[in-house]
Every structure is written in C-alpha cells, then in structure tokens.
C-alpha cells in the first residue's frame, strides 16, 4: 500500500471530524471506524486523537506499510484487525534495521490503549512503546503477533527524573513474540521490556527466538525492572530465548510480583544460553510451579541475586538445573523444587511443550501445597490427585470412555 501525501491525509481526517461534529453519521461517537489503507488509518487515528479518543479503529485484511510512527495521544483508542485473524492484518515499518525510517511502529502516550487481532513487525526501535512518562496506564495487547524489531518488541518506558509517573495496570495476553529467523539482529533485543511498570499481567503468551547472534547476550523474553512492581507473569511459553523471565536488574530493581505456571525451554541452539528465571534486586517476589528445561551449558535454571533480594519464595518448580543463590540474596522459603528433570518426562521438549507425558513419581502429587495457587499452565484446576504436582503442568491421566449412550438396538 502506498501512503497518501500528508495533505491528502489531513483532508480525510477533516472529513471524518466534520462528519462526527455534524452528526451526519447515524451512530454514536463510540462506533468503530473501519479502514483499509494507510491514509485512512492515519486519518482515523488523527480524528480519534483530536476528538478525545474512546474509539476503535478496525483494519481490513492487508499489509499496512508505514513511513512514520503511529502516535496514540488520546485515551481509549483501540487498533484491531476487523477479521479477528491476527495473521491477515499486518502493520509494519519499513525495515528491521538500525537505519530504518520508522523508529517505533506505535507509540502510546495515553491511557487505556488497546491492540488486538493483528501482526506488528519491522522497526528501528520498538514495535509498541507504552510511554510511562506520559502516565499511559491500562494498555492491553491481546491475540497479536509481534515480530522482527531491531530492539525490544514491547517497551514500557519511564522518565528517571519522574519515577512516580508510570504506566500501570497493563495486560499482554495470548500474543506471539518471535524472530522469524530464530535469532535477533543484534544483542540489544527483548520481548517485553518494562521499566517502572506496576501491576501488569503477562499471561498465555509465546516467546520464540529472542536471541543474540553475537556481541553480547540478548535481554529477557519478559523483564520488569527499574522501579517496576507487582507483575503477574503466568502461563507463558519461552522457547530458545537467551534468557527467560527476569524481575529486576543490578541496581535498578523490582519489588514483589509472581512468576508462576510458565514453561521455559532452551534447545542449546545459538551463541548464548543463560538462566531461565532470575530475581535480581527483587525483594518479596514469588517463583512457583514453573517448568524449566535447559539443554545448554548454563548451570542454573533459577537464580536469585544480591542482598536487596530478600523474602522471596521459590517453590514447586520442576527443573533440570540448580536453583542458585548469589551475592547475599535470601529467601523466606525454598521448598519443593526438583532439579533432576529428564527429557523423557515431557510431551515434546523440542517444541517447548513441557506437559508431563506420564505420572512421574516424585513429581505427581509431590508438591508443597500453596493455598493461593489453584490452577496450572492450562488454567486447569489443582490438585487432580492427592496433592498438587511439581511444575507448571498438573498431570491428568487420560479418561477412560464410558459405555455409549446412543446405541440403537433396532
């Protein structure tokens, strides 16, 4: 698609604004705007920004190649694929490159932004930036594909001079984050990189190939740090990423939060392989019922580091590497972790499917009971048997079919 000239785009936006102002459109202000070209998309977004937001923009199937960032500056704006099939609507910059013209594909500086049912790809910086410095609370991304950014795919930013102004209450659910080549273009890549973000939920996503080609290890697939707090990261799959899930970073910590019911696998491919889950300057955090299976040389599946990491709970994780304490970190409890997992226990490790293949002794019904944890990776209830299982998956034996009830006798 060829974008319209700026003058033409302004004209389309003016027509939309006039129609809304005059009441010519027989609908209320919250009705969605349907678009099918880059010019229409930009005009609709300009109009939504200018009229106070609270509007959905529905994109018809197709590829929308931008020449500049889409700026969301009013609250309650949603961009969504009209068909509901995230593969059929592609919103992209001009290249995945340090010299690309489009820096961020989307930059959000307002509350309650939504993105669903589409693919976002190719940028010089980020695919989506949520500007915490603009108090962009309540952002949500659902059922999207995010791939092939030159830096982190989703960035939640903060102004260090105003650390109390942050992007809070965001949600990222059922999205795919990936590098289609199986490796990133450089080391400064990541999946979700959130600074100063509080009370976020990251649930049910898949992260693949967030890995460095050399020159330094990639960032985490999911990372909350620099004043972040109280994130819930659950039911995600992390496959062949240099590092899995991290809370905090050296001197720029995180507080609280829960990492539970995630499956993390690394096949050993690529230049780097590091820890599956890390708490780094992250007090009061909880890491429970994750399954981490690493086939590279790094010795730890879970690490907790530095003296500021205190009062953490690490329990009931199914691992094939150690839980490693470093540099003065302390826990309130370290219990029920099994560190001798074998490949044969899992359904399909090569595809990061770490569901239990059978009822493994010492795993099934063997976990320490945690009253607040009532479900597993699939959202199915715990426990199934006498007690909860160690790891992300609560094993349920195949059901024996009962006698047929609809057999005709004549």
pLDDT averaged over residues:
92
CATH class: Mainly Beta
Count of discrete domains: 1
Q: Which topology does CATH recognise?
A: Pectate Lyase C-like
Distance between the termini: 64 Å
Rg computed from alpha carbons, rounded to a whole number of angstroms: 23 Å
**Known CATH architecture:** 3 Solenoid
Low-confidence stretches: 1-5, 11-29
State the strand order across the main sheet: 1-2-5-8-11-14-17-21-25-28-31-34
CATH superfamily: Single-stranded right-handed beta-helix, Pectin lyase-like
Question: Keywords, please?
Answer:
410 residues, mainly beta, 2 helices, 36 strands, globular, disordered N terminus
Structure description:
- The protein has 410 residues and is mainly beta.
- The chain has one domain: Pectate Lyase C-like, CATH 2.160.20.
- Helices cover 7% and strands 33% of the residues.
- The protein has helices at 6-22, 38-50, and strands at 33-35, 55-59, 62-65, 70-72, 77-81, 89-92, 106-108, 114-116, 119-123, 128-131, 140-142, 145-149, 154-157, 171-173, 176-178, 192-195, 201-203, 206-208, 220-225, 228-229, 232-234, 237-239, 243-247, 254-255, 258-260, 263-266, 277-280, 286-288, 291-294, 300-305, 312-315, 318-319, 322-326, 331-335, 346-348, 353-356.
- The strands form five sheets. Strands 1-2-5-8-11-14-17-21-25-28-31-34 form a twelve-stranded parallel sheet, with helices on one face.
- Mean pLDDT is 92; it is low at 1-5 and 11-29.
């Amino acid at each position: 698609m060829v974008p319209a000239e700026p003058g033409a785009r302004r004209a389309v936006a003016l027509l939309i604004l006039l129609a809304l102002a005059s009441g010519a459109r027989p609908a209320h202000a919250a009705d969605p705007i349907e678009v099918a070209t880059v010019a229409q998309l930009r005009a609709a977004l300009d109009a939504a920004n200018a009229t106070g937001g609270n509007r959905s923009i529905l994109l018809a199937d197709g590829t929308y190649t931008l020449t500049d960032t889409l700026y969301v500056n009013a609250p309650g704006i949603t961009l969504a694929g009209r068909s509901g099939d995230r593969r059929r609507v592609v919103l992209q910059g001009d290249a995945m490159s340090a010299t690309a013209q489009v820096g961020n594909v989307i930059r959000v500086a307002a509350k309650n932004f939504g993105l669903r049912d589409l693919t976002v790809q190719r940028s010089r910086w980020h695919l989506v930036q949520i500007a915490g410095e603009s108090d962009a609370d309540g952002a949500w991304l659902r059922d999207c594909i995010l791939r092939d950014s030159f830096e982190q795919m989703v960035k939640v930013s903060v102004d260090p001079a105003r650390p109390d102004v942050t992007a809070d209450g965001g949600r990222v659910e059922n999205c795919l984050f990936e590098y289609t080549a199986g490796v990133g273009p450089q080391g400064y890549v990541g999946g979700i990189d959130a600074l100063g973000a509080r009370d976020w939920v990251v649930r049910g996503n898949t992260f693949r190939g967030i890995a460095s080609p050399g020159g330094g290890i990639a960032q985490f697939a999911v990372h909350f740090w620099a004043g972040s707090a109280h994130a819930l990261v659950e039911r995600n799959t992390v496959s062949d990423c240099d590092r899995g899930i991290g809370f905090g970073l050296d001197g720029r910590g995180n507080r609280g939060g829960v990492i539970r019911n995630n499956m993390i696998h690394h096949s050993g491919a690529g230049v780097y392989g590091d820890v599956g889950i890390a708490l780094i300057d992250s007090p009061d955090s909880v890491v429970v019922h994750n399954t981490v299976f690493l086939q590279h040389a790094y010795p730890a599946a879970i690490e907790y580091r530095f003296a500021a990491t205190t009062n953490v709970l690490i329990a009931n994780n199914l691992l094939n590497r150690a839980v490693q304490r470093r540099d003065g970190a302390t826990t309130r409890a370290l219990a029920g972790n099994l560190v001798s997992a074998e490949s044969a226990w899992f359904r399909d490790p090569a595809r990061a499917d770490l569901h239990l293949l059978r009822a493994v002794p010492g795993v099934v019904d063997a976990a320490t009971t945690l009253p607040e944890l009532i479900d597993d990776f699939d959202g199915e209830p715990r426990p199934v048997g006498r007690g909860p299982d160690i790891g992300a998956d609560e094993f349920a034996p195949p059901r024996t079919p009962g006698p047929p009830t609809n057999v005709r006798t004549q």
